[in-house]
């Protein structure tokens, strides 16, 4: 039977990660996969996570199954982190294996409810978005997002394309820190996006994978909160991988906002989807997150470290923009300082990206997306010089 299988396309980001690991050159620089690294190149276990793990080890008395939706306390704490107060009567949710699990469950929920719904994705977007949509056989369309020339948002193109969305279609929005471009709408632009989508009676699906990595925990949730307040129904797929640094624990959440009357049936469908796909969601990471969010001291410690992480990336952005100014004698790359989150798309050709890898052991995704956190104060000037050399 298995002879009928065809090879699958490799995920470009994960392929790059494997290539980097195999590269034996000293001083190689990994700007590929979206994982935070400190100045020494380490992806640290955050202090609050370590403290919560210790506490959990001492206090945990059983590993029996939790609930199908995950622990209620986790769902409540995460709803609070993302949305703030006031959604208890409208929010159904499930704990999921990471943000990818949340997206997958969101798309499966859409397929159950309205299989003909077209899923609109930004062009470009995280490559796994179209991959999962395609895999589930859902119709897909793209809206313009990025102005390649100016390396900023193509807002006119975006609004024009969202004007073509049909009633009942789903529009996937990056809640903050757009992946891969790093370019994000301003609050006023978000208002306009919301107005267009409301007029079209579309359903927003917000992917919130980087809360706390852009402008701060609350600022990064601002757009998601506006969307939540504006629409009767919203899906939010969020990840704890980055902001809690618990990548391999696979911790995420899918929140479905609906009317209080429909909440029970939506929740039943979410539970059903968990049961069909993996029964109970992973618990360890979710439990750590709950402990941190519920304990004022742990929470404060986490917020401090997350803020250090965010500011480190911002400082690297400013330094890189300055070094690129010097190295290229132009303001072509000034946008790097204005983008937010882990990523920026530099606007280099694939051939230039390949040269950087082959000649300088600098690894970035083929579309010239860099992970800012892969840099440190010493490697920023090296990258700037190498880029100037391939231009
Ligand atoms: C990325 O975009 O690099 C991250 O979201 C990691 C991944 O799974 O692709």
UniProtKB/TrEMBL annotation:
One term of GO molecular function: L-tyrosine-2-oxoglutarate transaminase activity
Biological processes, Gene Ontology terms: L-phenylalanine biosynthetic process from chorismate via phenylpyruvate
Superkingdom as given in the UniProt entry: Bacteria
Entry GO terms, CC: cytosol
SUPFAM superfamilies per UniProt: PLP-dependent transferases
Occurrences of domain Aminotransferase class I/classII large (ranges): 27-387
Pfam families: Aminotran_1_2
UniProt keyword terms in alphabetical order: Aminotransferase, Pyridoxal phosphate, Transferase
Required cofactor(s): pyridoxal 5'-phosphate
Family: Belongs to the class-I pyridoxal-phosphate-dependent aminotransferase family.
Full protein name: Aromatic-amino-acid aminotransferase
Organism from which the protein derives: Pseudogemmobacter humi
Gene: tyrB
């Amino acid at each position: 039977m298995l002879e009928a299988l065809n090879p699958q396309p490799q995920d470009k980001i994960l392929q790059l990660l494997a290539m980097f690991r195999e590269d034996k050159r000293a001083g190689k620089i990994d700007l590929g996969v979206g994982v935070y690294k400190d100045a020494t190149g380490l992806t640290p276990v955050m202090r609050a996570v370590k403290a919560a793990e210790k506490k959990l080890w001492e206090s945990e008395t059983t590993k029996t199954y939790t609930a199908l939706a995950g622990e209620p306390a986790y769902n409540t704490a995460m709803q609070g982190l993302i949305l703030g107060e006031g959604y208890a009567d409208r929010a159904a949710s499930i704990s999921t294996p990471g943000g990818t699990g949340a997206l997958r469950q969101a798309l499966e929920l859409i397929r159950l409810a309205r299989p003909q719904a077209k899923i609109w994705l930004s062009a470009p977007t995280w490559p796994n978005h179209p991959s999962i949509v395609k895999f589930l056989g859902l119709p897909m369309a793209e809206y313009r997002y990025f102005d390649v020339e100016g390396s900023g948002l193509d807002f006119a193109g975006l609004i024009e394309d969202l004007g073509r969305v049909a009633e009942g279609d789903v529009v996937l929005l990056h809640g903050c820190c757009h992946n891969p471009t790093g370019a994000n709408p301003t609050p006023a632009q978000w208002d306009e996006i919301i107005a267009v989508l409301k007029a079209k009676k579309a359903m927003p699906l917000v992917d919130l994978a980087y809360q706390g990595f852009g402008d701060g925990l609350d600022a990064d949730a601002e757009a998601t909160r506006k969307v939540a307040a504006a629409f009767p129904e919203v899906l939010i797929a969020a990840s704890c991988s980055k902001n809690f640094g618990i990548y391999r624990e696979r911790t995420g959440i899918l929140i479905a906002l609906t009317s209080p009357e429909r909440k029970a049936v939506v929740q039943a469908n979410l539970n059903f989807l968990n049961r069909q796909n993996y029964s109970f969601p992973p618990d360890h990471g979710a439990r750590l997150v709950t402990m941190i969010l519920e304990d004022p001291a742990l929470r404060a410690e986490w917020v401090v470290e997350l803020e250090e992480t965010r500011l480190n990336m911002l400082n690297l952005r400013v330094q890189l923009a300055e070094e690129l100014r010097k190295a290229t004698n132009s303001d072509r790359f000034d946008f790097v300082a204005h983008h937010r989150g882990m990523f920026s798309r530099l606007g280099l050709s694939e051939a230039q990206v390949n040269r950087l890898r082959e000649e300088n052991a600098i690894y970035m995704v083929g579309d010239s997306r860099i992970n800012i956190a892969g840099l440190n104060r010493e490697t920023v000037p090296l990258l700037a010089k190498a880029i100037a050399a391939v231009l």
